[in-house]
């Protein structure tokens, strides 16, 4: 069928296109791959910004979790989890960019309906500015606009619908104190510099409209150094010591509350209480269900603790029960002898 004829064909026979769109937009996300196979019009619709915006506006969007992992062969791979599925398990995403299979220190971020894989370096390869993009609605990888500055081992966060690639290592001496900002509307990166950006970034999170980053815990001070980015001033500033001292693991923001997973003695979930400016223990997780080192993501009131081999534990912090100090949680087992040693480097959420 010609392109003209395909455009003139209604989305659904006997229905105006706006009504057909209304019906199709309510199809659960797990069936979108099937919709893509019906016709070119349906495929174009499912991958369109209009579809994505409509589902979000009417609270029809569903959030899936994406994990960047490294397997026992030291190759990088990407997995996806539908947390609402009746048979929850991690699925490997095909077509991973071959140039990135052996790279380390890559950035990993979700924006809109796409996952971005940024920068990185290798044993015989300097830091790169390459960026690859995975379109979750089309299940395909493409090249994207390159970073302004080659980077590896850097922080990556989304703020105000823009990706920020912060600090890290690169070919320039200024790289550890600079950051790149990606605007999807212009498909371009802009580089800025601030001497307050800390080197050797270990973790990052977005809280209260600010980007927070922290370093490794140093043996001299036995605590991490942390700074935050204030968009109104465009500057980086030091985080108060009382908050920074308790940030000793992966962090996540749940409805404006800052949670940290302390992994230095078992796995214990901590919460920052802004009103009294103190860290409060929420509870510890059983060593039988977690496999540190872990990463955290949040969907609603649920925190997903994703450890080695993608072993996943779900904690409902809105209703966090305790049994003798151990938090009540559910787990998502998906281990085989082939993947139980996979390291999880980063996890992000993407809603469609």
TrEMBL record:
F-box domain boundaries: 15-54
Pfam families (UniProt xref): F-box, Kelch_FKB95
UniProt entry tagged with the keyword Ribonucleoprotein: no
Alphabetized SUPFAM superfamilies for the sequence: F-box domain, Kelch motif
Gene3D superfamilies per the UniProt record, alphabetical: Kelch-type beta propeller (2.120.10.80)
Keyword vocabulary terms for this entry: Kelch repeat, Repeat
Name of the protein this chain belongs to: F-box domain-containing protein/Kelch_1 domain-containing protein
Biological classification of the source: Eukaryota, Viridiplantae, Streptophyta, Embryophyta, Tracheophyta
């Amino acid at each position: 069928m010609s392109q003209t004829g395909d455009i003139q064909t209604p989305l659904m026979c006997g229905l105006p296109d706006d009504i057909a769109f209304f019906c199709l937009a309510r199809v659960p996300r797990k069936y979108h791959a099937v919709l893509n196979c019906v016709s070119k019009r349906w495929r174009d619709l499912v991958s369109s910004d209009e579809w994505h915006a409509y589902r979000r506006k009417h609270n029809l969007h569903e959030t899936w979790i994406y994990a960047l992992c490294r397997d026992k062969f030291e190759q990088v791979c990407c997995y996806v989890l539908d947390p609402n599925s009746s048979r929850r398990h991690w699925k490997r995403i095909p077509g991973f960019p071959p140039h990135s299979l052996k790279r380390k220190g890559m950035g990993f971020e979700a924006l809109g309906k796409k996952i971005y894989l940024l920068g990185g370096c290798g044993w015989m390869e300097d830091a790169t500015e390459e960026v690859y993009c995975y379109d979750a609605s089309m299940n395909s990888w493409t090249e994207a606009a390159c970073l302004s500055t080659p980077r590896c081992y850097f922080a990556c966060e989304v703020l105000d619908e823009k990706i920020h690639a912060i600090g890290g290592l690169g070919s320039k001496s200024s790289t550890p104190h600079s950051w790149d900002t990606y605007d999807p509307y212009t498909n371009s990166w802009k580089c800025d510099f601030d001497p307050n950006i800390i080197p050797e970034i270990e973790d990052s999170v977005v809280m209260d409209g600010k980007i927070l980053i922290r370093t490794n815990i140093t043996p001299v001070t036995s605590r991490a150094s942390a700074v935050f980015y204030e968009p109104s001033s465009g500057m980086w500033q030091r985080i108060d010591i009382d908050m920074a001292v308790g940030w000793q693991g992966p962090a996540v923001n749940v409805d404006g509350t800052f949670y940290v997973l302390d992994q230095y003695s078992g796995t214990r979930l901590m919460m920052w209480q802004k009103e009294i400016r103190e860290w409060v223990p929420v509870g510890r997780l059983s060593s039988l269900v977690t496999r540190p080192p872990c990463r955290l993501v949040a969907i609603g009131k649920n925190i997903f603790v994703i450890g080695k081999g993608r072993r996943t534990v779900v904690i409902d912090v809105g209703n966090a029960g305790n049994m003798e100090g151990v938090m009540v949680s559910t787990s998502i087992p998906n281990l085989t002898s082939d993947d139980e040693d996979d390291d999880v480097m980063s996890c992000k959420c993407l809603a469609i």
